[in-house]
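We include this case.
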Amino acid sequence: PLRAAESLYRAAERSLHEAGGVLDGPGLARLRDRPEWGGASPGRACLLLARLTPGRLTLYRGFFSAFSAPLVERAEKALRDRLNAARGLLPLAEIAACLPRSARPPGVPSAEPLLLALLRQLPDVLVTRDGRTGRADRAGGELLREILAAGEAPLRALVDSFNARLYPECRRGSGYVRDTLQHDPLVRRPAPGRYARPGGLQAGLPL
């Protein structure tokens, strides 16, 4: 079986290298029609390979990695520690640059792909499409205030704008957005169902 799977291993390792060492569901879907897989489903092939030789291809929290499970676990712990210490959103690049040596993935230019794959599996964090992340109970208010800097808005529009800035796995419903706004002292309600920042704190408005 290992000899028969060697061509799939080569395809998986090439794809992992191109993706920064990790492949999640969306990444595997983009590989579906590539000829090196010989018509096989990349997701099913990677699952088979991870079971055949776990040290060569790692399955961790719903994504595949070229790194060992202990290294991925150390990276996740370091990531959690940074998020727990932060008061709001942090640049993902900053977290990646400050990883301890024992948690840095080898053979790739940056740990950001690994951190992003981890973050997209954690239910209590937000990850923005512009490369920032934070705990949902701390970072949501910061992101909503950024949106309100453009001016007063109704709840529905705020929910849509909020989710448009996040990866699909991190999106939130109107209940979360409403509760976050109501508990934020830097946000006011000028009318039922409408929210704004206090006077003087909005940007981009005519003088």
